[in-house]
Design brief:
The structure holds two protein chains of two kinds. By secondary structure, chain A is mainly alpha-helical. Helix content of chain A is about 80%, strand content about 0%. Chain B has a single domain, classed as Rossmann fold (3-Layer(aba) Sandwich), CATH 3.40.50.300. Chain B is built from nine helices and ten strands. Chain B has a six-stranded mixed β-sheet with strand order 6-7-8-3-9-10, sandwiched between helices. Chain B has a four-stranded antiparallel β-sheet with strand order 2-1-4-5, with helices on one face. In chain B, a hairpin with a 2-residue loop joins strand 4 and strand 5. The chains are: A mainly alpha, B alpha/beta. The interface between A and B is medium-sized, with 21 and 29 residues.
Chain lengths: ~220, ~240
């Protein structure tokens, strides 16, 4: 056995500096992904045939190609096409939001469809306009039901965020790799960031449980 | 006033309404009865365009709702609807259910809406439940809240779609008592029901539907004591 964690101790602050990058990235992507996901899901249940077809096509493209490819295309194509020097974080947030929206739009759509149609009928009978009905009556109930699925998506985003290390962003994994390359030890720094990822996921799961419990007061 | 003129409605191959015409006068209480699948609920749901007729016209207070569907939300504000399965908003408290539409649709100030909601809850005997979520209420209580919620919009017309059909027998009475009280206030009401005794007691007029056709309409006395149509007689023999 030849394990020595002492070598990486001086580098722990540096590696943990990547934690903020990872978290910022995940929160931004999750937030934008859900917003776009809501928009797509509402288009999918609407009556506008052309928009519906576009939304379905969008979903099939982003679900049908590898995420790392989408990331690379956005990162490398943007400077070439529109002459904008995009940062790794920007490219990452864009790629991950767009990708995540494709998945969450299906989850949200399923959540909306699962709400009893009597809810819609009660709202419209009271004269409530469509937008308010969606916002106040349908979506809150749908979100409560799909919260576990959305937490899954958040966890996936957090772990997949490690992919941005491939385009040079100094996130947790990238920093672990840099330390590894400098010190010629791979096992210890990688194991260390593995533990960090795992701990955030546990924390996220636990907070989601608390939130779920709070949303259950009406049950 | 509601005027239904020669309305047809089918779901796929199933013809549910086959040319129904009926007029409901202001202040009138009309009970719609008939066997299951006769189109009673569909007729009622056409009156606020929850179902869109395939053919025919429906006029509510001079607005032809089958023509100007853009105005339907405005018309619906004046028509309260009570459903078989209550359809309370489960994520809102009783009070939240009550004040939602008045504050959103009528832009009523919140304090005013709350005050009015509490008065209505008092009338249906549920003022003490204002902070409770619907899941904690019995069926009868839910339906009374649903009635109060519809009344909070100060409608001119109330539509009841089998309001007691989903209730346990011991709760039917409390809901019917509330509807009866309401009938005495002079509000226009259309009630789809299976409760013959109630229909007889509360309605000014009975409409009997069978197979998507309005077979007979008459005052409760005439309808129950002296039915004219053969199908009405057969139906009444079965249910009375």
């Amino acid at each position: 056995m030849n394990i020595n964690f002492e070598i990486i101790i001086p580098y722990i602050p540096y590696i943990l500096g990547g934690l903020w990058v990872t978290i910022k990235f995940t929160i931004l992507s999750a937030f934008l992904g859900i917003l776009l996901g809501i928009l797509l899901s509402i288009i999918k249940i609407s009556k506008f045939k052309v928009l519906k077809a576009l939304a379905t096509f969008y979903t099939s493209v982003f679900r049908g190609t590898p995420l790392i490819l989408q990331l690379a295309i956005i990162y490398f194509a943007t400077p070439q096409l529109i002459n904008y020097d995009i940062t790794g974080l920007q490219a990452g947030v864009i790629a991950f939001s767009l990708n995540s929206a494709a998945y969450t739009s299906e989850t949200i759509r399923a959540g909306i469809m699962a709400i009893d149609k009597g809810q819609r009928e009660a709202a419209v009978s009271l004269g409530v306009p469509y937008n308010r009905m969606m916002l106040d009556i349908i979506l809150p109930q749908a979100f409560k039901n799909i919260l576990p699925a959305l937490v899954n998506e958040g966890i996936n985003l957090l772990k997949d965020s490690a992919l941005v290390s491939t385009i040079g962003t100094a996130d947790l994994l990238r920093r672990a790799n840099i330390v590894a390359a400098e010190q010629y030890v791979y096992f210890e720094p990688l194991l260390f960031v593995g533990l960090v990822y795992y701990l955030i996921v546990i924390l996220l799961t636990y907070s989601a449980k608390l939130l779920e419990g709070r949303l259950r007061v009406s049950d | 006033m509601i005027k239904v003129e020669n309305v047809y409605k089918s779901f796929g191959k199933l013809d549910v309404l086959k040319g129904i015409s009926v007029e409901i006068q202001p202040g009138e209480v009309v009970a719609v009865i008939g066997p299951s699948g006769s189109g009673k609920s569909t007729l009622l749901r056409c009156m606020n365009l929850l179902e869109v007729p395939d053919k025919g016209d429906i006029v509510v207070n001079d607005t032809e709702i089958t023509k100007s569907s853009t105005e339907i939300l405005k018309v619906r504000e004046k028509i309260g609807m009570v459903f078989q399965h209550f359809n309370l908003f489960p994520h809102k408290t009783v009070l939240g259910n009550m004040i939602y539409a008045p504050t959103i649709v009528k832009k009523k100030p919140k304090e005013e809406a709350i005050q009015q909601a509490m008065e209505l809850l008092n009338k249906v005997g549920l003022a003490d439940k204002s902070d409770v979520y619907p899941s904690k209420l019995s069926g009868g209580q839910k339906q009374r809240v649903a009635i109060a919620r519809a009344l909070a919009m100060e409608p001119e017309i109330m539509l009841f779609d089998e309001p007691t059909s989903a209730l346990d027998p011991e709760m039917v009475k409390e809901v019917l008592a509330v509807i009866k009280l309401l009938a005495e206030t002079g509000i226009t009401m259309v009630i789809v029901t299976h409760e013959m005794g109630f229909a007889k007691e509360v309605a000014d007029r009975i409409c009997f539907l069978d197979g998507g056709v309005l077979i007979e309409q008459a005052s409760p006395e005439d309808f129950f004591e002296n039915p004219q149509n053969e199908r009405t007689k057969i139906f009444l023999e079965k249910v009375l």
